[in-house]
User: Which sequence fits this backbone?
């Protein structure tokens, strides 16, 4: 019988209504070897866009690879994301975004040390690369 439990995991939140990204503790459900972040209470716009995009992104720093899970909403009727607009003025991301660190087994784990700076880099880079077509980033996600 698998044991189920709930706990909080540190993540990086880019909320539309905030001026800057911030650390957030995300309620997570663990069932056996799987962990499921419960993001419905963190990401706004439930009625405008009920589903959440989920994408794995790897950032390479020198010879080390850091893998993150990006959870986001992007819809024309959601508010413009202020933290992303400040980081990348040419962007027009609409909706919230959460970045969580991915462990060796692919599960979400607590962010630590330089992870916030790496998360900011990956968000800035992904948004900048896809500034002309915001849905291109989402199409790369499984």
Assistant:
């Amino acid at each position: 019988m698998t044991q189920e439990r709930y706990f909080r995991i540190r993540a990086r939140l880019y909320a539309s209504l905030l001026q800057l990204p911030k650390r957030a503790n995300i309620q997570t459900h663990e069932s056996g070897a799987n962990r499921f972040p419960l993001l419905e209470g963190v990401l706004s716009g439930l009625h405008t866009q009920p589903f959440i995009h989920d994408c794995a992104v790897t950032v390479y720093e020198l010879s080390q690879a850091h893998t993150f899970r990006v959870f986001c909403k992007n819809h024309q009727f959601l508010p413009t994301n202020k933290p992303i607009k400040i980081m990348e003025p040419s962007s027009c991301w609409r909706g919230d975004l959460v970045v969580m660190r991915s462990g060796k087994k692919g599960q979400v784990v607590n962010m630590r040390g330089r992870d916030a700076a790496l998360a900011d880099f990956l968000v800035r880079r992904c948004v900048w690369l896809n500034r002309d077509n915001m849905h291109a980033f989402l199409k790369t996600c499984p």
The first helix runs from residue 82 to 87.
